[in-house]
Write a structure and sequence with these properties.
216 residues; alpha/beta; Rossmann fold; DNA polymerase, domain 1; 2 domains; six-stranded parallel β-sheet; 9 helices; 6 strands; globular; binds 6-O-phosphono-beta-D-glucopyranose; binds magnesium ion
C-alpha cells in the first residue's frame, strides 16, 4: 500500500520545457552554440549549471569560460526563463493534474515536489497549487542531481515515508532512473520521447486511477 506521491514539476505538473528550451536556445545563439529541440531532450531534469555544462560540451566550448562567466551565463538564461513564466496561470496545469491532486488531498495522501528547478515554488504559486504540496525539496540542499536518487529519497523522508511507500512521477529519463534507484514505484509521463524502466507509463494523469495506484 502506497502512502505518498512524489512529483517532478517540469513536464509533469506543467509544460515549462518549452520555456527552458527557448531560453537556452537564445543563450546558445549568443555564444555560437546551436541548441535544437533534439539536443534539448538531454537537458530535461538536469540542473541549471549542469545543463549549461552540457551545452558548452555540445558546442565544444567547455574550456572557454571561467566559473564566474558560466555563472553569469546561467543567471542570464534564468532571467529570460523567469520572464517567459510571467504569464503562467492555473490554466497551464497539465490535463488531470488538478483533479488528481484534489483527490489525493481528499484521501489524505500527501504530495511532494522533487524538482531540480530552483523556480519550483514560484511556478507552483503561479499555478495556484502550492498549498497542495506538503513538501517541496530545495534542490540547493542536494549533493547530486538526477539521475541520483537523492532528491526522491529526501522527498519521501520529508513526507515521513520510505521511498518504497511512495509513487514517483517523471517525464524525463534522468528523473525516472532516480525514482527507480530510490525504490519508489515509477509512473512515467510520456511527452514524445520514450521512457525506459517505468513501472507504468501514461500520457496524462487523467489515465490514472488513484485507488489502484495506491495498491501497488
Ligand atoms: C528541471 C528541468 O525540472 O529543472 C530542467 O527539467 C532545468 O530543464 C532544471 O534545467 C533546473 O531548473 P531551474 O528553474 O532551476 O533553472
Ligand atoms: Mg521533468
Amino acid at each position: 500500500m502506497k502512502k505518498g506521491l512524489v512529483f517532478d514539476l517540469d513536464g509533469v505538473i506543467t509544460d515549462t520545457a518549452k520555456f527552458h528550451f527557448l531560453a537556452w536556445r537564445d543563450l546558445g545563439k549568443e555564444i555560437g552554440i546551436d541548441v535544437d529541440l533534439k539536443f534539448n531532450e538531454q537537458l530535461k531534469g538536469i540542473s541549471r549549471m549542469d545543463s549549461l555544462e552540457r551545452i558548452l560540451v555540445h558546442g565544444g566550448r567547455q574550456n572557454d569560460f571561467t566559473q564566474a562567466e558560466k555563472e553569469a551565463l546561467a543567471a542570464k538564461k534564468n532571467t529570460h526563463y523567469v520572464e517567459l513564466l510571467q504569464d503562467l496561470t492555473p490554466a497551464d496545469l497539465l490535463p488531470g493534474v488538478k483533479t488528481f491532486l484534489e483527490e489525493a488531498q481528499a484521501k489524505k495522501v500527501p504530495c511532494a515536489i522533487a524538482s531540480a528547478s530552483k523556480n519550483a515554488p514560484f511556478i507552483l504559486e503561479k499555478l495556484g497549487v502550492i498549498t497542495m504540496f506538503a513538501a517541496i525539496v530545495d534542490p540547493a540542499t542536494l549533493h547530486k542531481g538526477k539521475p541520483d536518487p537523492e532528491i526522491f529519497i529526501k522527498a519521501a523522508e520529508m513526507l515521513g515515508f520510505t521511498p518504497e511507500e511512495c509513487v514517483g512521477f517523471e517525464d524525463a529519463q534522468a528523473g525516472l532512473d532516480g525514482i527507480k534507484a530510490s525504490g519508489m514505484y515509477a509512473v512515467g509521463v510520456l511527452s514524445g520521447e520514450p521512457l525506459h524502466g517505468a513501472d507504468q507509463t501514461v500520457h496524462e494523469l487523467t489515465e490514472l486511477d488513484l485507488d489502484q495506484l495506491l495498491q501497488k
